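Hi W.,

Here's what went into the run:
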Amino acid sequence: MSDRNRIIELIAGEDSFNLISHMLPDGDSIGSLLAMGRTLEKLGKNIQLFAPGRIPLKYRFLNRADLISPDDAAFDSSRPVFVLDSSDADRLGSFKEKVLASPKLINIDHHVTNQRYGTLNYVDPEASATGEIVFDILQALRIDLDFELAEALYVAISTDTGSFKYDNTTPHTHTVVARLLQTGVSPGVLSQKIFDERPLSFYILLKEALSSLEMYFNRTLAIMTISKDIRIRSGASTDDLDGIVNYTRNIEGVELGILFYVEQENEVKVGFRSKRLDVSVLAGKLNGGGHVRAAGCRMHGSFEAVKEKVLAESFLMLADLPTGGAN
Amino acid sequence: MSDRNRIIELIAGEDSFNLISHMLPDGDSIGSLLAMGRTLEKLGKNIQLFAPGRIPLKYRFLNRADLISPDDAAFDSSRPVFVLDSSDADRLGSFKEKVLASPKLINIDHHVTNQRYGTLNYVDPEASATGEIVFDILQALRIDLDFELAEALYVAISTDTGSFKYDNTTPHTHTVVARLLQTGVSPGVLSQKIFDERPLSFYILLKEALSSLEMYFNRTLAIMTISKDIRIRSGASTDDLDGIVNYTRNIEGVELGILFYVEQENEVKVGFRSKRLDVSVLAGKLNGGGHVRAAGCRMHGSFEAVKEKVLAESFLMLADLPTGGAN
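Here's what came out:
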């Protein structure tokens, strides 16, 4: 029996569910959480929504986003739990032990690195977003697609595909989104919220990041560096760092973009972006992980030592790249 | 008989065609021109491609983009002509008279303002891009969709929808793009070329622009200032200024964004961007013009005098804005 059918069977046999997604909630984790929750509600189930972390302001317009609880004390381990978009249980933060203690753990994800820690695992690395998998589940359950579901799933899929720009976007992705738009959701309204608008503090931080820009390896490697001090002085949140790292890749001729965020002495968060390189491999070598074109790791040691180590691995990778360029 | 069927009938009865699109070629005009040309070639027709203007660098990777001629002397008026994506004949520049002298003019467009100046007019304002209409034509002609056609049409549609972010994006748009991706075209490679990549000099200029950022009128007005000196020192081109001005508008809470470009003593180019305001009216008051959300003017006088005058008009406009915000 397929994973999907096992999940459908399990849903039919239970009345109440917890749902949770990963730390540092993003559009896909929040959108797929809300859509899976609403799907279960439409089947008459009791649900409770959790996330180990604050919901970023830009996603709070989503219906019921305010019902997502960050409180692990409220998590009842006797219920079956859906875990959305989380490649491993460590990404559940302080909820980890309680989630793993649940009698039935349904792990729904699209990360190729998923650790299959569930009692049921529905992992489809071909899906552009976990939201795309949730769409397939609700279709299989013959749930009527309404505006609220469509908004949540649109946010999930458009976030993880960079508005359909990344190569994880498939024909199926567009076919799903065609269905979502039929409910009347507005791509204009949603995209403005998700992508274009940023707080003033973001642009102050961007100025600082651009001032730190260094180019290496015949201008195929771009590096920006931000310290926690500078971030705080800019008034920017840690959410804003995600937007900054993309700028490294957007420079013409750059194959690998890196953002160093010096969080404290001897602790550096490193973000990788690429056009053709598989940066999940690079991050993996440094005990991190992520996607093919967007990955990261956390490293210990002085900034200079961390930077030297990352540069060495990066140069090895860039040296292997066939010439010809992405352009 | 439908416009589409009349066009199919006309194609069957002719051997040679000219094809042309509008001045200041963009992704949709170039993509729909190339795709319509290739469609006719696949039917065994002779074709010649024209555009009244230079093809921007970022679109020149498209197959046969180098065959598009800007030379009106080479245009043979005895052939039937396809005109793509041009709302009126004035947009054909120096080609206008020769195009209008053609015995058969097939006008294919999606602008609601189209003047229907053809002998056949296939105008569909519901289509997100002229490329979407060309897709429908080649489907009706049972043309096999190949990689080259799909790349051209992807560029056309993704450009005019801002990568599916604008509200002209419909379920049909996504259904068409699902088909395009089935040919193996890469949304990642194409989107990077169309949207994200900019030269290093652009980001150096952006840093300078962000350093000049001033906020007025309760942070609803954002102003950046660049001098010609700074632009040249950054290594940036005047094209790069277009990208910079958009940053003023993308700041949360900003209703009006302005870029002052001090071209020389006593000459200032002013760019306006807005979320809800009609900046074509604002630019008009200052002897400029443009679109509702993007306009500009050129002013004479000292920078200080120009800035005072622009601020005064801007404040009047912002004071009239209903509260509630664009968010």
